[in-house]
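Collaborator request, handled under Task 6.
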Amino acid sequence: MSTGPLIVLVGPMGSGKSTVGALLAERLGVPYRDTDADIVAAQGREIADIFVDEGEEYFRELEREAVRTAVAEHTGVLALGGGAVLDAGTRALLSGLPVAYLSMDVEEAVRRVGLNTARPLLAVNPRRQWRELMEARRHLYTEVARVVVATDDKTPDEVAQAVLDALGPKTALPGGEAPDPRQEKK
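Structure tokens returned to the collaborator:
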């Protein structure tokens, strides 16, 4: 039997990884895990507070460890923080796993994330900073992804179904087994 997550979601903040991940887990009857939530639980404080108090480098180390642990332990649906793909070791860990990149354009990001939320990397001129983040990260998301699913103008249910469709055969009829996307070839 394969080990590791059944599906891994990557993408920028606001792309719907947490919402879609929970829906996918529910549909597949598997557990859901979010590495950002793991960090918050372990640290007892929000990510924005970690950035302010300790800096981005400290947060990225926490993130690397959270991803390593989750990939080793978790067998359900796993959502990674938006910047997790910046680390070469994390990208190597994702190699061969069924990774879906949830993409969106800047207008959709502004609509979803807003301009005044507690996102530490979007504190000043969020629209420009989001574009710059995406210029630096888009190729990394694409590098690790088996599939790319555009989330613009789609409901979370539609995105979840698109991920399932893109990663392999649709789930079986009720009472049947869900396919294991880890068995699909890249």
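The cover message to the collaborator said: "The beta strands are 7-10, 32-34, 77-79, 99-103, 147-150. The helical segments are 17-28, 35-43, 47-54, 56-73, 88-94, 106-113, 126-144, 156-167. Please let us know whether this matches your experimental observations."
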